[in-house]
Amino acid sequence: MAKQTRPQKKAKAAMTLSLARSQLACVRRIAILAFPGADELDIVGAHRVLCGAARMNAGIEVCDVLAAEPGLSHILSSHNLSIGVSGVLDTETAANYDMIIVPGGRGAWRPTDPNLVALLLSLAQSISNLQFASVCTGAFLLAAAGIIGRGCTVATHHLAGAELVAEYGVSLESKRVAVTAMKDVPTKVVITAQGVTSGIDLALCVLEFVAGEEKADSSAAMIEYPRFKLTE
Fold it and tell me: Rounded to whole angstroms, how far apart are CA atoms 188 and 180?
């Protein structure tokens, strides 16, 4: 495959961003996947922004934290924080949501849990309008499930990027958040973010797509956080 020129890359990025604006404007209900060993800040950072937006009536209706397996009321995160969950994520409950956010941590990378991969693959295959996003090494779970892969430009933790490229053939984004076309589905977008605190950046970008720059700016100001903008 011929290497793209800089103008070609810019044109492709602009088209992907335009596609994201049209698709993600309809996102209202979001679920964050939780599993033992997930990084707590990947979950909590995004959850705080999106729940705050829901309280401000800023387009988002709900952001729930859902377990990857039934029977759990809490999960123990990578740094031993107990995080409560409000239910389980499966093909039945996922139909109630517009987007799934996948955190990183143990189980996402070294090793990648095959049960989590199977769950995401099942969701992607059975719910055609479901959007996906990841924080940190959660990108490995999306890649293993075939949601992102060769031809996709993605963001992940800086210590994991080379391995993600070698294993799945993706291109790395140097910015905190990347928007890319889904592998084998060029008409659908996926959002990925770099490590840990960038879950906040991802959530603010989602909010911008849903409710506009002003609402995203207000949410960032409320939590005293310098907002990353995809167009910068």
Answer: 8
